[in-house]
Amino acid sequence: MTSPLPAAVTAILLAGARPIPDPLAQAAGVAVKPLVPVGGEPMINRPARALLDHPAIGQVVILTQRADLFAADPATAWLADHPRVRFEKGGQGIASSLLALLEGGDVPFPILMTTADHVLLDRAMLDQFVAEASGADVAVAMVERATLLARYPQSRRTWLKFRDGWWSGANIFWFGSDKAGAIVSLWQEVEQDRKKGWKILAAFGPFALLGALLRILTLRSGMARIGRKFGLVARLVAMDSPEACIDADKPEDVMLIEAILQR
């Protein structure tokens, strides 16, 4: 059973740059990846519009190292002028940037965080995620492999295996209260190993690691156990839409996204 929709959710849109040059940005001749054209416009525009058009979203905070680039580009200048959008300075890591933002005290909970390369983000995804995440201190959107491959068998993702399937992140996160700070702090510690699933699991304790390796944990029960460890409510949101875990990370992703947009 889901909780009533909150009146105003703060959305954080990650639009930063990695320390090393991004291949998509280099190929497109733009300074940062969020400005890479996808479907005829900079990729950041579509998730930004999806957030601003959703009735549960209040303000949109764009976290980036180079706000000036978006204001200077005619295709994204509308973001700098929008009354419900503000830019905040990001650092080199997502978790450290988020912690700094939360410690500033002027970003109200609940918070929904997503990424500028989540080009296919839409109303249906946000409806499901906000409804199912509401009431949790922390929630993470994931897509089960069968859901994705049933429609897009050619798509390649990073998967974590549990007893209830193979799961991939959908780049949508929920921070429902200040209790989430403990999880974000841990995230900061393992951020450099985000593609190495066993290291992330190990950070939550040996039971979580062994549970995944021996397949004695479902992802849902694992999330609940992690929540209890930190004294909070942690929840998995298993997304219905396979498009929820397709982001614009590689050239083949962009080709797939543009084909979906054309349909």
From TrEMBL:
The chain crosses the membrane at residues 198-219. Residues 32-144 form the MobA-like NTP transferase domain. The keyword Transmembrane applies. This is NTP transferase domain-containing protein. Keywords: Magnesium, Membrane, Transferase, Transmembrane, Transmembrane helix. One of its GO terms (molecular function) is nucleotidyltransferase activity. It comes from Sphingobium limneticum.
